[in-house]
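Recap for those who missed Tuesday's class. We walked through two folding examples back to back. For each one, the amino acid string is listed first and its predicted structure tokens come directly after. Nothing is annotated here on purpose, so try labeling regions yourself before you check the end of the notes.
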Amino acid sequence: MPDFNGTVRVMAVAWSKSKLGHGTSDVIVRDAVALTASAPRFITLGDEATLDMSIHNLEAPAGDYRLSVSQQPLDLVKGEAVSVADRPLSLKAGERIGERFAVKPTDVGLVTYELRVSGDNNLSVSRRLSFNVLPPAGDIKRTTVTTVAANGGKLTLNPDLVAGMIASRTKVNVSVGPAARLDVPGLLTSLDRYPYGCAEQTVSRALPLVYANAVAAEVGIAQDKDLKARIEKAIEHVFEMQDSSGAFSIWGSGEGDLWLTSYVTDFLTRAKEGGFTVRPIPFNQALDKLQNYVNNAQDFESGGEARAYALYVLARNARAPSGELRYYADTRLERFSTPLAKAQLGAALAMIGDKDRAERAFKAALAMFDADDAKRKSLARNDYGSSLRDGAALVTLASETGFVKSEAPRLVNVIAKAYLNRTYTSTQEQAWMLLAANALQDQSKATKLSIGGNPVTGSIMRSLTVEDLAKGLVVSNDGDSSVDAVISVIGASLVTEPSISKGFKIERQYYTLDGKQVDLKSAAGGAALLKQNDRLVAVVKIESDEASGRVLLV
């Protein structure tokens, strides 16, 4: 039986070949001393909570008892319970009393308290209460960008970086090298924390992981032993969102999205090339869908994002129609509306060996990316894109195919500046920036660094805990050229970050159920009084100076 005081119904059924019978009886089940307790469902770190107990002497003799409250360790094997209260208790026969204890947890996470009443004749009744302690401010990101001078320049990492942060919920990511401004550890941490599971976001989280262990080996950090299982779980998850035609849609229902179908199939192709298990039948159905789309596509005046991506994915799988590719490069190149679409066309041409047209397509993509085209930036995009995403994808495709590689450092600088000015980035932007960093690994091999006195050839990419910084950690540049360094602190803070407005304004107003407005000052950091059982309606108003886009309010 679980912890229970009350009436239990016991039922029994008996049968033979020719007879059937049953019986039912209600039985009272209770401890000699009934103990019931309640606690809040959750609190915020820094709050004080009250544990309420009701103690009823039902059948035990009158006398002296002991009431104790202890906080249980997270590790029940190695940890030890911490006493919160321990006091004597006097109970008369049949007496019911109430007790209260104030508790103030010192860390975030699940906390468990054990409440116990003990007495003579081995009487011991206990209850356990568990609730979550939440951080005052989650998803905090602080980024520091600096340069480490050549020939002995040093960067010191110390506990000041994590002042005011909650140690158990915080990571410090350090990147030093030519692609440091792309902040690979920080991007991986952001994607790994992303909670949503539609097709686009699932692929955005899993796509960079295809190369994660290869990057880890290059920079000398521990490889993820669970990586294969994580990627193959993502593969199976997106296959659940495929329809009978081979197309993928955002949540697995509704009409297939052709740009998304190309994106998912690109991920499946890269995973297959990386040795991960991809079921051939649904994979070939996706390629057939893209092939049918390209073969039957109508002419267009502008756009072409889904068409260019489909051609690129088909080329990567040696199924691209070379005649169609050359036709688009010769007669329709300027009609493709985004730098990414032109770069994908160039990459597809490179894969079929048409270097001249590939070079032309890449240069057109670069020219479009550089152009200050306000109209293009303000248009609604159906390809989940942005200028930052397109720039990162340009670096990736150019580096992978070997075209316009000389432009890569300039593009990295442009997209890194845009990234560091952002408070938040989309999963698309994060995924393609990680692919760009992977494609640039060859450029970092000439870098000579050391961390904690240990030499490193190539870039440094580390994810550190708060404990790692306790004694300080020094990064030295032993090479002949200065290098960039990016330190990003991601986690939960003891203090709420100040409000900011970058393109959006959010207002909340509160009303009673009969429509009267309430001045709830506590919602903005002040103080307000709410009585037990008060119910309010919150009205959220969002204003944006962006013309359009895909927005998620959390």
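Example two. Treat it independently of the first, because the proteins are unrelated.
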Amino acid sequence: MNKRFGSITLGLALIFSMRAGMAAPAGYDPTNLDRTAPPGKDFYQFAVGGWRAAHPIPPEYPEWDASSELEESNRAKLHDLLEADVSADAGGETRQLGDYYSSGMDADAINRAGFEPIKADLDRIEAVNSLADLEKVVAAVHRDEINAFFSFGPDQDARNSGMNLAEINQDGLGLPDRDYYIKTDAKTQAIQRAYRKHVTQTFVLLGETPDVASQHADTVYQYERQIALRSRNNVDLRDPVKNYHRMTLADLEKLAPSFPWSTYLADTGCPSDTPINVSQPEFVRALEQIWTTQPLADTRTYLRWQLVNGVAPWLSDAFVDEDFSFHGKTLKGLQALQPRWKRVLHTIDDTMGEALGKQYVAKWFPPTARAQALSMVQNLKAVLREDLKTLPWMSAATRQKAIEKLDAMHEKIGYPDKWRDYSGLHIDKTSYAGNVLRARQFDFAFHIAQINHPVDRSLWDMTPPTVNAYYNPAMNEIVFPAGILQPPFFDPQQDDALNYGNTGATIGHEMTHGFDDQGCLYDAQGNLKNWWTRQDMAHFQARTVAIQRLFDSYQIGDGLHGNGKLESGEAIADLGGLKIAYRAYEKSLQGKPRTVDANGFTPEQRFFLAYALSWACNDRPEYERLMMLTNPHPLEQFRVRGTVSNLPEFAQAWHLKPSDPMVLPPDKRTEIW
């Protein structure tokens, strides 16, 4: 599974197994265990050490985890669909998908083209001699969904969630995060040197001499570093209150008067009378300084790099290999490039995912599966509702609002009720990069058209084949694509204990995201609005401090520590999700025999073993470091250790002593739900 950018989950296996009269299947697979690691000392290693030893990371991936086999299975299914589309005698989206795939698989044509697909754009950049020219280029690359300087698009108005407004966010960096330009430790400096070398080699591929390319690479790095120094860190970016600054066009023009904003809005297709959320006003002020003080030659060099860096994966093999050398090998530790068909499939899913998803759903996700999944979600909501009614630290006034929010939470299961229409998108067999850019421009225009209009709550942020899920606080919705609702997660033969520990925890995770340190700031309609009493909010925030300190304490092999403030939202949702799932499981056992499996594990022990298995993962050291620095989700091993060690129910299930490392003392424990 990927590293879960956004509020995500694992699977929904338990929705079938809750049906009455189902025979109890086999228990937890003992081959997953490492019995040399006592559960009270390192439960993660005990529960999944055997699994990790048996599942080395394939050379083309940065990690291999519990859902990777499902992802591979889904890729194979999508691959079959695209191959069938190529040979199908059909029009419409089938023809589009077939031609798109054919163009991506035509390596000879792609290599002959070199960087010709972006030659006209590069020439346009070289002709920039004024800020008016700059605006035209910035608008053009933004339509290609390349975020030079800043990102621009629609978003729900955080204070009026029923309407879309325009939004500007800090962006424009080639390295993963601002800190990569700021930190001075040896590992970061090595990445900085590798990055400059990568930029140099890419400029050489554009026809520059090595000396000129090296000079331009230094220009790009220093230019981006100026942007990085003026960017907020990733903890501050998580605060929705700090990042809400609704303005008019006139207000925006005061922040950066040299840039022709009204022309930019027109060139991107945005109405000029829209309100604009300038998420980081000080960043836009800093851009004004950069635009007016930096030589235009340096700005042109920066823009050329932003363009080629954004398009490199779809150009000739020389560009693809160089892009992989840095982004794959250096940043993630990959040993091999994915085969072409997987890369093309990923791009099509990213740019025409609902067209491909429609075919996927028709073949592999029947309506009955959708109905059963929805039923399971409703069951878990009922348990969470009961929990909210009894929280001792929450007052009656706040509790009422919390229950109203839970009851208003919307569920999206499997696929959209309304599919995207791609009939206006031109796809042909002649140019893969051309197809990708037209598809991205089509997508950009689709989203820009939503600005100044009511929010369409039928839209999805993930495609149906995705093995992932999320909670969206502005929509107050949980979303489970069809891609994750497949075996082994969507399996009628699964032991209830395993289903609840895996799937129940993940459904609960998404629901409690509505009440984590970000979600708690949004009301039932998705508005950024305080619905807590002052005392209750103080109680809640005090309870998050312990979990932040715990995740601060975790470190990986090179000594890099976690960032509890960055990871606290996911850690809170993990803790709430597991606790709610455990209560739901205990409730389901009422009146039933509490069977011990063939390996001697009780139902409660199997529940926690399943939770650990859902996060079984092997990471490459480079990727592990990248995730620790940039991702709001803790590493899998810490998600297990940090969550179970907070639960007295876990210690009881495994008969642990208060002195065991996997048992947090009461004064360091986080008790929210």
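Answers for example two:
The longest strand covers residues 160-170.
The chain is about 55% helix and 5% strand.
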